[in-house]
Design goal:
The chain is mainly alpha-helical. The chain contains four helices and no strands. α3 packs across α4. It is flat.
Length: 100
């Protein structure tokens, strides 16, 4: 699919059609910071890697929706920024007190 590759590079469909690139970018290839890489030997490391990559995708979709460029992958920054964005959106919700 195109979903996750678009989160890495929104121009990739045009690049692949023009022959500029031969394969779509992979979110899975985004590197974890050196300080977190030793965790990859444990199950928590795999979970952390997948979680931070997913947060980068969410962060990219938020940026694209706001008309901004896709941000550079930052493992923990993505998680924090998505949490702040979600909290801001949730605080703007109205009328939930009667939604039982």
């Amino acid at each position: 699919g195109l979903g996750r590759p678009l989160c890495v590079d929104p121009e990739c469909p045009g690049q692949i059609l023009s022959g500029e690139i031969s394969e779509l970018p992979r979110v899975e290839d985004l590197a974890m910071p050196l300080i977190l890489r030793p965790l990859s030997y444990f199950s928590i490391g795999h979970t952390l890697t997948m979680g931070t990559q997913q947060m980068h995708c969410y962060r990219a979709l938020i940026a694209l929706g706001d008309g901004k460029p896709v941000p550079t992958f930052k493992a923990l920054r993505g998680l924090l920024e998505v949490q702040r964005y979600d909290a801001k959106c949730a605080s703007n919700l109205e009328g939930l007190e009667n939604s039982k």
